[in-house]
Amino acid sequence: MQEQIKRDYEIKRFDLPDMSHREIDDLLNSQLLCRITFNDQPYPYTLPMEYYYFGDTMYFHLTSTGKKMDLLSRDPNVTVEVDWASKDLSDYRSVILKGRLVEVTDSEERNTMNVAMSTAVKDKVGITYLLRVPWSKKGIDYLSASNIPLTLYKLEAKEITGKKAH
């Protein structure tokens, strides 16, 4: 049996302020990487992933194989976290989204998002660097340009919360 430590102080809960809808949108639009958590047993399975935020929807390119696809086929419910912190950590923002990942099957939506995603990430280090995609052609669909089979998914968010430290 563990002995109780006597404390001469009370631990108080401190809640960070909520972010406004605009602040949440600004954060999601400004970042490239998120952490996405799939339901697994006995522990959740979390991966860093690139995403694209358009309107109020997050889009992801997923490979067609691997553990995340096995987990997704069993349970499409996920949690996504996006954050930003100043260099000295005096300012911090975090957004948590909970919802379902669904494959984008509408060809018009898929084509629009593929071009938008390729344009959005072309100037950032990320998947475009890994795929070694030539950016000389405007509007290139980097899914077609790569030899990695990718499928477009979107998050149907059921809950979105944001907290900030400053």
The main sheet comes to: 7 strands, antiparallel
Structural class: alpha+beta
Q: What share of residues are in beta strands? A: 25-35%
Based on Cα principal axes, name the global outline. globular
Radius of gyration: 19 Å
Q: Given the structure, what is the number of helices? A: 5
Q: How helix-rich are the residues, as a percent range?
A: 25-40%
What does this structure look like?
A hairpin with a 2-residue loop joins strand 3 and strand 4. The longest helix has 15 residues, at 107-121. The chain has a 7-stranded antiparallel β-sheet with strand order 2-1-5-6-7-4-3, with helices on both faces. It has 5 helices and 7 strands. The protein has 166 residues and is of the alpha+beta class.
Features:
166 residues, alpha+beta, 7-stranded antiparallel sheet, 5 helices, 35% strand
What's the arrangement of secondary structure elements?
Elements: H1 21-30, E1 33-38, E2 45-50, E3 52-54, E4 57-63, H2 67-74, E5 77-85, E6 92-103, H3 107-121, H4 127-131, H5 142-145, E7 150-164
Antiparallel strand pairs: 1-2, 1-5, 3-4, 4-7, 5-6, 6-7
